Amino acid sequence: MLSSIKTMFLILAVTFLLGFTFFYMKSPVFQEIYLDKLNYKMQHKKPIFQRIYPDSQPVEFKNESWRLMNKFPQLSSDQDKNLPECPEIPPDLGPLDIRVVYNTSLPMIISQNPNIRPGGRSRPQHCMAQQKVAIIIPFRNREAHLKTWLYYMHPFLQRQQADYGVYVVEQMEDTVFNRAKLMNVGYATASKDYDYSCFIFSDVDIIPMDGRNLYRCSTNPRHMANSVDKFNFKLPYNDIFGGVVAFKKEHFIKVNGFSNVFWGWGGEDDELFQRVVAVGLKVDRPDQTIARSRMISHKRDPGNERNGKSFPLIRKAYKRLHQDGLSSLNYTIISITSHKLYTKVTVDIGDGEDASLEAN
Ligand code: BGN
User: Fold this and answer.
1) Does any domain span residue 326?
2) Residue 228: which CATH number?
3) How far apart (Å, rounded) are the C-alpha atoms in residues 128 and 86?
4) 282-310 pLDDT, tens per residue?
5) I need a surface site. Which of 9, 293, 303, 338 has the fewest CB within 10 A?
6) pTM of the shown model
7) Interatomic CA distance for residues 190 and 120, integer angstroms
8) Can you name the residues that pair with 227 across neighbouring β-strands?
9) Residues with CB under 6 A from ligand 1
């Protein structure tokens, strides 16, 4: 009797342990810890993060005054080639008051930003920007978030004396969302539009809370949103590379862009990080005090459920790198529309049926 109770107890304990291990290994917590370790195994390359510290003293703004001060007028016509170069660090930048905006409208944002040219383009009037920056935003059914993004980001980018254009890339069909592939389409479309040297890949719901977080490229690919309110302004895991990243054109080509095979939420940014490590690049991160960013909270969108297949894909990133990405990108542009505040690219990227083929 006693021994059968013992046996039953043992069987229960073993089952519990096995079950626990199984679910733990499937959980994002375990996978994220594992992702941090992956680089050490893979090619024995240690990811190196370089911190970028701002040189300038922060300037304090009252409420939203910074949005409406047109201190750095941008240009609405052709630029004089003899202008001096803009300074490395634009003057008068500092922490910003960012909230979710409910009471605005596109006409209001347009009237508050008179120097934005069609397609959401702008550049400084009194100096020549050192970089030409394309901002790529993957999109589907997030009008309210886009409005908040435009409301803050046009004044933000103008204050930073940026020569920039905004590209909103919308997945047309009702199939599972593919953020990474939309980023690749944005890159390809913007590149045909203008001689961009720097590409910033941004979610529509992340707004930087400090003007010193320069939306431009640095020596290495740059992880801008490394201090998000949703994660208490800390990194949830060391190798996180999500939200907003900036790539020099030659670096984005070197990593062959994003993978095209990530359908659904999660992992495509971790995979991009593996590509960066695999080609021997480092990652820059602005200091966490200036990288503070606001994420507009929302429920997970329908059609963008967690991608259950991302973990094995991330582990094999270095194997697929040259076959899967910009070099294998196929899509059909439905329309390219020049709105007053952004260029809207509507695209048919398929439905992932061929994903297993692409992944090989
Ligand atoms: C991670 C996601 C990232 C996302 C961050 C922050 C995955 C892959 C399996 C571990 N990674 O869990 O894509 O940016 O959370 O939300 O899902």
Assistant:
1) yes
2) 3.90.550.10
3) 5
4) 999 998 889 999 999 877 788 888 898 88
5) 9
6) 0.89
7) 12
8) 292
9) 28, 31-32, 35, 240, 242, 266-267, 269-270, 310-311
